[in-house]
Fold this sequence. Notes:
With 346 residues, chain A is of the alpha/beta class.
Amino acid sequence: MGTGLHLAAALEGTGWHPGGPGDPARFTPDYWVDLVREAERGLLDFVTFEDGLGRTGRLDSVLVASRVAPLTTHIGLVPSVVATFTEPFHLSKAIATLDYVSAGRAGVRVRGSFSAEDARHFGRRSFPDVPGEELLADLVEETADYVEVLRRLWDSWEDDAEIRDVATGRFIDRDKLHYVDFRGRWFSVKGPSITPRPPQGAPPVAVLSHSPRIHDLARRQADIVFSTPHDVAEVRAAAAELGGLRHFADIVVFLGGDRDAADVTSDAHVFTGTASELADLLVAWHAAGVDGFRLRPAVLPDDLVAITGELVPELQRRGAFRTEYGATTLRGHLGLPRPANRYAAV
Amino acid sequence: MVKQIHLAAHFPGVNNTTVWSDPRAGSHIEFSSFVHFAQTAERAKFDFFFLAEGLRLREQNGLIYDLDVVGRPDTFTVLAGLAAVTTHLGLAGTINSTFNEPFEVARQFTSLDHLSGGRAGWNVVTSWDAFTGENFRRGGYLPEEQRYERARKFLDAATVLFDSWRQDGDFSYQDEFFDISGRFDLPRSPQGRPVILQAGDSSEGREFAAAKADAIFSRHAGLADGQAFYRDVKGRLAKYGRSPDQLKVLPAATFVLAGTDAEAQERAHEVRRQQVSGQTAIKFLEQLWNRDLSAYDPDGPLPEIDPLVGENTIARGRASVRSHRDPVATAREWRELAAAKKLSIRELIIEKTARQTFIGSPSSVATQINDLVQADASDGFILVPHVTPGGFDEFADAVVPLLQERGVFRTEYTGPTLRDHLGLA
């Protein structure tokens, strides 16, 4: 995937700082359009939109991504979805459609939820307040099944299924549409999708992993993995585990200078300092084996503007980051080829 | 007082109304088609864009149906994208109440309403059948007789969520279908709730609309049948404490325009022949007969054998087959009509299924639309053109200005929300 490093921004509410109530502007479309355009000015590979089904105070991330898509041109758009309570059939066509709306820039981050609160919002299952080992293992399996169904449904139309053959009166060649016939412990899905195969064939699937169990899920079903190393040794260890995936290390970023980040607790490394110091760290970690970084701006838009306005030029000066987009799709930015269709006759 | 007309632009769907073989026909999936279509509707000051949904590809004779357009995008995702390229147009779509859960749908509509500045509309449908259920976690779990009950309760639950900002998002809702509680953590959206649309024609469907909906679609676009439907549904409102203007009646309608009425008639005839090929005519006949009729000649007479009565097994994923309530009587009526007018199978199907609602010069069509609205056969129309995505261009340029000249259609949007456009409080 080239010699340079890859950069993404994780967009969360008004930032990842544990501050008080966020700015209500985050419920307006222009807030998101401005942020993603800023990230695109910085030539980032993609942005992720945090989301969940609990007490999140967030707009639906798939819809936010689609709202932004027509007003941007290059940057990848990766919403977050919870597999546990939702329908893989709906989500598959939603991400396929996002790929059409964005002309090949969709991805999706998938995760399970063991939250008893989330479960009460749906009322179909109940989870204990403290999940047991068996439930956690099951949720991983269910998430793996879910991604399997997403992928099968994306492939359920061959690329040339729509023929519009006036002579025979046929709009499609039905031999190029396929039942996916998935049968699992949590759901069965017949298919085909109602939506044709998306422009990228399969939009990249991302997983955030903190544990061997999720590393395993990522190896089985993901294209992109986000990990949370805290030093070079942890970067090397994670990279050894996650070879073959596009591996991004998550870092919470305070570039504002004098902000006190001492009280910030995060699963990810918390960086405070200057853009130049952050560039040092990214270059070192990249050399240690990670492909790129998903930066979590602590304060929006300030820390994102610092990333695009200070960090990116610093990395470019060092020859460590692109100076223009070389592709128009998310797969293109990541150096992932368009996959063959599993159902197509060779 | 002269009534103001409401118009919606229905994106052409996956049935034979849509003529995909027309040389001007574009993609039904590429976003650029949706942009063209929606921006034309907005230029014409339409009330809203409408996108339908079907959650399983149709089959006939056990095979995926291949004669019509196949394939649709995800409703929410397209509507959110269109919010970026329009400023006033309402954005409405079908979302199923059987194969979804209220928390997620309420969150999606509240998000869409925020992201569009108050332009979201929800056509609430039910599809209980096991055929569609094979694509979802719960399968075909819902008995047909409970489908409206579930739709009503789904909407009740969603409404509790839409209104939960009054209690800082805390909600709790229980009935025989749902048992949910927690915190709906989004602020009130610009419209508070999406505009609710409903399309059922049965007595149950009409009752559901009278109780819950802001607008009802219908198939009754003629004068007499339109007036009868209009009286019927408006008459049901009082018992729910609602006034007649709180439910808009919007029949689905098609149109064919040309320079003169005679040219339009000729063009309409040609469009009908494009919509109903010989193959399509046989498929339509099979849907009523519930039998394989592939051996019949579409240019020949109707079958003498009677339809198979009972569950329709020949066509699946197609709601229209359920409207054939007494197939044997309908077949007899079709045979009599064909004999009297000397119609072949194809000509009969054209006659019964493909006649356009409005045919004529722009001036004639404007008059036809306005006369029906002023005569209380409707409050306006959901118009579906037969070509994607340019099928509205001519209507926007030629018919809308005439309606505006007559003072029966807006020349500018008077408010930002779909509720404003529909004159709903």
